[in-house]
Amino acid sequence: MIIEAPYETHKNSDGKWFVEVRGRYFQVTDNVINLLNCLNNSDSYESAYERYCQDSELKLSYQDFCLLSENQINKLGFLKEEKINKNSYLTVRFKAVSPKLALYIGRLFSPFFNKIAFSVLLTSAFTFQLLIGMPALIEYGITGFNITASLLILLSSALLHEFGHVAACTKFGVKSKGIGFGFYFFIPVAYSDISGIWMLNKSRRQIVNFAGVYMEMLYSLVVGAIAIMNNDSILLSFSCFLFLFSIRSLNPFVRNDGYWILSDLTNTPNLMNASMVELKKTVNALVNKPTQYRMTKKSLALSFYPVINILIIICLLIYLYNNKSSEIIDFPENLISFIIDAFSGQFNRYFFTWDNLLALGFYAFIIRLFFIFRNFVSRYLQTPKKLTNE
């Protein structure tokens, strides 16, 4: 057996083949599947070549077959023994919910993804917040709501978001590999490992990607119902804020649900990198007129994707600074004082205010903008050095 690393092949309902290697999924052609079967069932390249010539319509010389085999083995990661970094866009991360527990939780919530239940509950959440929650939010706002209670509700909402993804996967027969927490550009986030959704067709993948937002919207409906039963206008307004806050995940310019939905709709795997490559080609085509690059509607749209991403961040920065300039300027000093007090045993709970959270968001956006520019310059604009014989 030439391929020693364990792998599995899957064919989804769209008829596309995928190879799973160490938890990562690669979309491949029928010819690659045939090649892997020949390599996996042979003890030498010679015998694999004989099998391949019998089974494949593609005729290759023995030398070309060996080159093709080595290329695919390396491309699919069979030779890489090191730990795979699946969520490379996350920095520090850890698993909080095991795959076994995630499966149990998924089964509990999977009835919410019945076609009738899904339609009725989603419509109910929209109607409730539009007719009852929104007027309360406009009248009372959320500034009167306790910041600690707000953070606890938002944390539980984030967990339910991930449970939604897991539940949708369970509903469609795909196993989740657990739920964890990490940091995305210094912002704490929850994540669920649902890479197996590539086994589903496009419509079901879209449901899985939207499932997190759906669960948060249902949660806002529950919070709103509790507020009405307790005649709590502030909690009612916060339930509407929670509903609107859930929509943030549909932002296609951050690696969140909206990003994966857009990537799937446009049939563009690794959307951010693909758009950066197209932007580089477009810039080169504009600067260096004589070029063989031919721009299509899709390539032009992809070129605008990172540009719009940056413009949105700049607009948010301007908006935050115009409205919270003093809080933003004072935040570094306040943060240092908070850390010093914490180390000396004096925990200042008054540090956790909405103003400080907005100021933290401002600096997080600054850092994110820096990384976007740095990555674009280092990976896409720098000219490769020519090799010399010196």
Automatic annotation (TrEMBL):
- Listed cofactors: Zn(2+)
In the bilayer, the protein is annotated as: Multi-pass membrane protein
Membrane-crossing segments per the record: 116-137, 144-161, 181-200, 207-228, 234-254, 299-321, 357-377
**Residue ranges occupied by any Peptidase M50 domain in the UniProt entry:** 151-286
Specify the signal sequence span.
Answer: none
Mention one GO biological process in which this protein takes part, according to its record: proteolysis
> What subcellular compartments does it reside in?
Membrane
Report the InterPro entries cross-referenced here.
Answer: Peptidase_M50
Ordered alphabetically, the record's keywords are:
Membrane, Transmembrane, Transmembrane helix
| UniProt GO cellular component terms | membrane
Q: Which family does it belong to?
A: Belongs to the peptidase M50B family.
- By what name is this protein known? Peptidase M50 domain-containing protein
Q: Lineage in the entry?
A: Bacteria, Pseudomonadati, Pseudomonadota, Gammaproteobacteria, Alteromonadales
